[in-house]
Design a protein that fits this description.
With about 350 residues, the chain is an alpha/beta fold. The protein is built from 14 helices and 9 strands. The protein starts with a helix and ends in a 15-residue tail after the last helix.
């Protein structure tokens, strides 16, 4: 059996693998491995690091993500957050209240701003403890999502129509800070990836994606590629209307949520690796091992033969209250059914 890191390296280098990569999107769920409140997990580098280490040793998933909320970069740039005991941090007060406040925007300093030092410590702890076995993947809110958290999402989306110059000013600042943070994570030996949930097709059009999102994402992935690292883009929600744009961003892997994998393969499969998209709510949280196994079969049946590769994952974050037995079921089904070469007979549905 290959280690997760060996498997990922083989995937990136086009070499033989024992199976496809299998990794649920474990974010704040990792706090459960040390019985921490989410607020304790996401405000301490020691807690965040040690919980992710414990979670990896418990489940042996193929990627270790370092994450608490998509607004962390905006927080470091001035947005105020509040921290529920047992839920993800939330935006309390966006930094940019008036257009005059745009003058206050400054590039982020990862060593001192917001909770970025917490993340840097967590990443370092994980790299030192388990980095020889698995890639450590800090998650960065991409520019459009960061800009929305700086301005307030409702106001920001309205300004796509009423004040595009404000949007571009925010996007420039968010992109510059994202690139700085990418460099800081890469220096620690991590593989930063980006999430852009506000740019979902559920909220914006393809036209707006091309005008306000795509040019800045291209900069982000160029920065990631400058470190010799792969670019991964995750967007939640309905992505059909923007998935062709996503594939033009420079990202090597598209992590998708609410789109049929077979359709995603037809639309962009010859351009990028696809990742996803077992339903985290109906499967991981509300489901049971038998249901999860059928969902795994469905994902693999539709996407295992994607020309640019496929990674079995959940469509979005694993709910914090996901039962342990469901996590085990996902990983065991994935490891069995994604063994190479794929046995397509095993992917036939059993009718559950």
């Amino acid at each position: 059996m290959m280690t997760p890191k060996e498997r990922m390296l083989a995937f990136l280098q086009g070499q033989e693998m024992d199976r496809l990569l299998v990794s649920p999107i474990i974010l704040n769920f990792a706090s459960r491995s040390l019985n921490l409140k989410v607020s304790e997990f996401c405000t301490s580098g020691k807690n965040m690091g040690e919980a992710n280490i414990a979670c990896f040793k418990k489940y042996r998933h193929d990627f270790v993500y370092i994450f608490s909320t998509t607004s962390t970069l905006a927080e470091a740039m001035g947005t105020k957050m509040y921290f529920p005991d047992d839920d993800a941090p939330q935006v309390e007060t966006p930094f940019i209240q008036t257009k005059e406040d745009l003058k206050k925007l400054e590039p982020v300093n990862p060593e001192k701003d917001g909770r970025l030092p917490v993340y840097l410590e967590a990443v370092k702890r994980c790299v030192d403890a388990i980095g020889d076995e698995v890639f450590i993947i800090p998650v960065i809110g991409a520019p459009f999502t960061t800009a929305a958290a700086l301005r307030g999402t409702d106001t920001f989306i309205r300004e796509l129509y009423t004040s595009p110059e404000t949007v571009h000013t925010l996007m420039r600042a968010a992109t510059d800070s994202a690139k700085i943070l990418i460099d800081a994570y890469a220096k620690l030996g991590a593989v930063p990836i980006t999430v852009e949930p506000v740019a979902t097709g559920s909220m914006i059009s393809e036209k707006h994606f091309r005008e306000f999102v795509l040019p800045y994402l291209k900069e982000v992935y160029a920065q990631i590629h400058s470190h010799g690292l792969p670019g991964v883009l995750h967007i939640c929600g309905k992505t059909k209307r923007v998935i062709k744009c996503m594939a033009e961003s420079g990202a090597d892997v598209l992590s998708v949520d609410d789109i049929d994998l077979g359709e995603a393969k037809e639309l962009v499969g010859d351009q990028v690796c696809l990742m996803g998209n077992l339903n985290p709510a109906d499967g991981m949280f509300k489901g049971n091992p038998a249901i999860i196994r059928e969902m795994v079969k469905d994902c693999l049946a539709k996407a295992h033969d994607n020309p640019k590769g496929y990674i079995l994952a959940t469509g979005c974050e694993v709910p914090i209250v996901t039962p342990h037995e469901n996590m085990v079921a996902f990983l065991e089904a994935g490891r069995e059914l994604a063994a190479l070469p794929i046995n397509t007979n095993k992917l036939e549905k059993s009718g559950i």
